[in-house]
Write the structure tokens for this entry.
Amino acid sequence: MTTVVTRLGTLADAHGRVARDLRMSLTDRCNLRCTYCMPADGLAWLPTPEVLTDAEVVRLIGVAVGLLGVRKIRFTGGEPLLRRGLAGIIAGARALRTDEGLSPELSLTTNGIGLDHRVSELAAAGLQRVNISLDSLDRERYAILARRDRLDEVLDGLAAADATGLRPVKVNAVVMRGVNEVDVVPLAEFCLQLGYRLRFIEQMPIGPQHGWDRASMVPAAEILELLGGHFTLSPAPGRGSAPAEEWLVAGGDCHPSGTVGVIASVTGPFCATCDRTRLTADGQVRTCLFSLTETDLRTPLRSGATDEDLAELWTGAHRGKWAGHSIGRAGFRQPDRTMSAIGG
Ligand code: SAM
Ligand code: SF4
């Protein structure tokens, strides 16, 4: 009997980093039109035949986990809850084993709309955590930012995730100058009260073309100033490759103690410790959100490539991963695809 020995590799790059965290985009479509992410009219969606099928998604995740040392998978989009086969994909990923012999960690980044109806099914399939985007607790401002009046559905989704035990529930908020700086403190208070982990994200130049400029971006320092004016903050120990710089918040009259994070992707990039790899909904590897090139896995996958062939292509892409993005410096070029089409 012949024993087939599969060589286990890693997604190592020339800068000493190893990618263990896969951002898997399941669709480029979305039911919101957040101003920092998408144009008001939406985008030209990927034609269905170009989108990986559920079985193809699970196979590529299997290559990443089984052959390339990936240990965490975050499903994203576009809006991943729009993907009908989501629970089946999660179950398929859950059945895999990492190089440490464990199931990969599975989480979902979502706008939360409709989550209340599906969260039990997703948790039963193996989903462990959710990150829910919420930029304002004010109905009008939420509708201005998301260009849809759907705040109540997001809040229902949050409550359902918490009730189902997908903890800690994480909340992502992008702060837009002149729009929702006033929401920084109320969002933090709300999350502390309910035990959600809030992370503010600096707006990045990855939305509608030419819709970003450094001067109007609200930097992490300013967000911290707003928070510091209301809460007693101290730096949380340890950071590793986690993008959120965590702060401990002392308990106050209206809230218990907790943490709040600020992701300074522009003013304090964490590229040197980046452990991410990305796969778009149409099967293209991106080694960085801001990459200007992609490595096609879908064509070889559909032309009979073996798992080892696909792993080799993926590894090759990472060998060439750049040291970091150059937002704000001369020569920075925004990628052609926007956030929702790459997978945030
Ligand atoms: N639709 C899901 C959601 O909104 O959570 C998942 C996809 S969305 C692209 C993922 C994350 O990217 C969200 O938290 C969103 O706020 C963030 N995002 C989108 N455009 C951004 C930008 N230009 N700068 C910073 N974050 C952005
Ligand atoms: Fe949709 Fe998420 Fe982009 Fe908002 S941030 S438009 S919810 S993909």
Notes: The first strand starts at residue 11 and ends at 12. Residues 11-342 form a domain with the TIM Barrel fold (CATH 3.20.20.70). The first helix runs from residue 54 to 68. Residues 30, 36-37, 76-77, 79, 109-111, 133, 172, 174, 201, 203-204, 206-207, 339-340, 344 surround S-adenosylmethionine (ligand 1) (CB under 6 Å).
